[in-house]
Amino acid sequence: MTRVTNILKRIPLYIWILMFTIIPLLMILVYAVFEFRPDGVHFTLVHLKNAVTEPLYIQSLLRSLKYALISTLVCLALGYPLAYILSRMNDKMRSFLSMLLLLPMWMNFIIRTYAMLSLIDEEGIITKLLGGFMLKGTDSAIIIGMVYNFLPFLVLPIYTSMMKIDKNLIEAAQDLGGNSLHVFTGVVLPLTVPGIVSGITMVFVPCVTTFVIPQLMNNNVWTIGKLIEYKFISNASADGVDPDGGALSFILMILVFISMSIFNLIDKDDESAGGYTL
Amino acid sequence: MSFFTNSAKRAGRGVNLSRILSLVLALVLTAGLAAGLTGCSSKEKIYVFNWGDYIDPGTIKAFEKEYPQYKVVYDTFDTNETMYQKLVSTNTPYDVLIPSDYMISKLISENRLNEIDYSKITNYGKIRDNLKVTTFDPEAKYTVPYMWGTLGIIYNKEKTGDDVIDSWDDLWDEKYKGSIIMLDSIRDTMAIALIKEYGLDAINCTEAEKIEKAGKLLEEQKKLVALYGMDDIKDPMIRGNYALCVHYSGDAYAIMDESEHDLGYVIPKEGSNRWIDSMVIPTSSKNVEGAHLFIDFMCRTDIAVKNAEYIGYSTPQTEAMSELGEGYIDDEVYNPTDEQLANTKEFIALDSSVMETYNRVWETFRLTDDDEKNSVNLTWLYVLIALAAVGVIVFFVIRKKKRDKLRYDD
After folding, report:
1. CATH number at residue A133
2. Cβ–Cβ under 8 Å, residues B97 and B280
3. Is the alpha carbon torsion for B391, B396, B397, B401 positive or negative?
4. How far is A148 from chain B (nearest CA, A)?
5. pLDDT > 70? residue A275
């Protein structure tokens, strides 16, 4: 009896997952391998082949990976010390500062990106400080936009795993004669690896796929996300959708899964140390 | 539901709350039903399907006041393609559509439009003559122009100085490197390259070779262009940050109006595109009489004036144009001369196979890297980063193995 009710309780969850995860994923596959033409539906692998062989597509994919990689590293370089500093503060200061960190996230990210854009466009303050050198329309602008938008996603998991470190461990390490560098590399860093890993996943994956930020910051180059968006929306003729778009999304999804599983490989076993994984 | 009442009961006023809620719900429902019923009176309906924010709402009210036997059911679309999809796939008996030129040519070729009985459009005579016969409706049988404009170059006289800007070639001038804004729009931008290279007749070019060449020209131009955009390029131009900007005349008029800088607008001498959004009656119409009435009403001088003031684009109605008066009728941006107009052509719909070529060329152009702009070579950095990433992964995997081994040894 209880088993039945248990299953019943889970039904809404299953329906949710089915409707918003399974079916959309299948739809991507369907769009990748079927052509919807006025004369009927045709199965073809041409578009998948296009997606992995067309040099321009690969180029845009590499471009996206490049932006995502740099943004993630910059986020890490900024976010890790930030999380460390945050975890070392007294309670009052910490809650105040973490609220400041979260505050911008309550706003829509497009508005946030526009706000950032207004700092680096022709009349922006940063442009004036740089002596008229405009960041808008350069690769750096894309990196700035991504880092600005996704930094909190990296700080929070690292911060959580730092908060979970037992103070006694650090004291023990110090008692045993470790200098601060030793304490950091021997205790703090290993124990925050799960946080780092989940933080990286939460920044890297959206960075690869985002199309709004690159479009606003530098519309002169197309990332893979922008290409897919174009295939689905701008390029949509009255005759239907360009099926290469479906194939590209499918390939991109597989790449995301692969990179996630690599991250999770590192992360396994270490869960006891804290942090939250996806 | 049980979840709700439980928590509400805990608050000690569960019964009251749910009663009030159901009462409110019931009231809302009845009110809605009543409103719906009164809406369904015996009035004949005219289904109008137009671009979003592309009519003065007051004109619809005025029409319903004037012809109380009709009720206008107004619906909007945001691209010609969605309009087409909806027209073809739904059963809504649209009576009046206001699509753009190339979409109209597609609708005509698919026999989806009714011929218009011009004897019922009493105000048709006030429509500017050289807008009636068009590439998409060569015999002027299906359309009544609604709004129109041209494609041209806005230039900042403070930056161009004594230079005469009168040609598409100016957009390829090294002198304006980093100071050029182009439209991020496939047909318009491809047309510019095609006209520049092959003349005005190439505006609806279907030859793959020429289309490819146009793409190459745009690729060459890429290093000179500062921005590709649509609405987002207006502000920079208003603030006077750039020298040249491609845009439609209606937007150009607004930009020049708003800007404090000395801006000009030119239809290049090689010729350009003119766009015309026209009112048409689709075959889906069940109220052809009402459709004619509505179209005629929109062409009436006072209504056309009101509408043109609201939308800001050029009205084809000549009397309305003179009524708008100074600042409009004498403005060559808003109201180009006949000579200027003679040098412009409309887009027509292209076969999907030709459009595929356009799309492929456009994508190639947009995806190609502009090496000069990313002049800082970062390859070494990527190699380093990749190596570091691999190193970190290897390090952790080895460490984990070691640790597992230790664990088992214990």
Report:
1. 1.10.3720.10
2. yes
3. positive
4. 21
5. no
Query: How far is the C-alpha of B245 from the C-alpha of B249, rounded, in Å?
Result: 12
A234 falls within a domain: yes
A59 to chain B: which residues are within 8 Å by CB? 367, 369
Largest CA distance in chain B: 100
Suggest the residue from B81, B259, B363 to mutate for an interface test with chain A (most A CBs closer than 10 A).
Answer: B363
- CB contact under 8 Å between B393 and A235, yes or no, is no
- CATH hierarchy code of domain B149-274+356-367: 3.40.190.10
A83, pLDDT greater than 70: yes
Residues in A 148-187 with any Cβ partner in B closer than 8 A: none
In-domain check, residue A1: no
Fold of the B44-147+279-344 domain? D-Maltodextrin-Binding Protein; domain 2 (3.40.190)
Closest CA to B189 of B362, B348, B373: B362
Antiparallel, parallel or unpaired: β B44-51 and B70-77: parallel
Do the Cβ atoms of B228 and A70 come within 8 Å? no
Residues B311-350: tens digit of each pLDDT = 889 999 999 999 998 888 888 888 888 888 889 999 988 8
Instruction: Give yes or no for B241 touching A (CB within 8 A).
Output: yes
Contacts of B384 in chain A (CB under 8 A): none
The verdict on residue A29 lying in a domain is: no
User: CB–CB of B370 and A221 under 8 A?
Assistant: yes
Q: How many domains does chain A have?
A: 1
Kindly list the domain boundaries of chain B, sorted by start residue: 2-39, 44-147+279-344, 149-274+356-367
* φ and ψ of A142, to 5 deg: -65, -45
Q: By the 8 A CB rule, do B157 and B262 touch?
A: yes
CA distances from A2 to A6, A120, A215, B198 (A): 6, 60, 53, 78
Task: Give the A window 106-135 contacts with B, CB below 8 Å.
Answer: 121-123
Question: What residue numbers bound the domain in which A269 lies?
Answer: 48-273
E strands in B157-271: 180-183, 225-229, 244-248, 263-266
Q: Residue A269 region, left (φ>0) first, then alpha (ψ -120 to 50), else beta?
A: left
From chain B, pick out residues whose CB is under 8 angstroms from the CB of A70.
385
State the complex-level ipTM: 0.78
Record: contact B352-A239, CB cut-off 8 A? yes
Contacts of residue B184 in chain A, CB cutoff 8 Å? 219
Task: Specify the DSSP class assigned to residue A136.
Answer: T
Percent of chain A predicted with pLDDT > 70: 92
**Eight-class DSSP state of B125:** G
A204 touches chain B (CB under 8 A): no
Binning pLDDT at 50, 70 and 90, where does residue B70 land? very high
Residue B375 pLDDT: 41
| CA–CA separation, A77 and A72 (whole Å) | 9
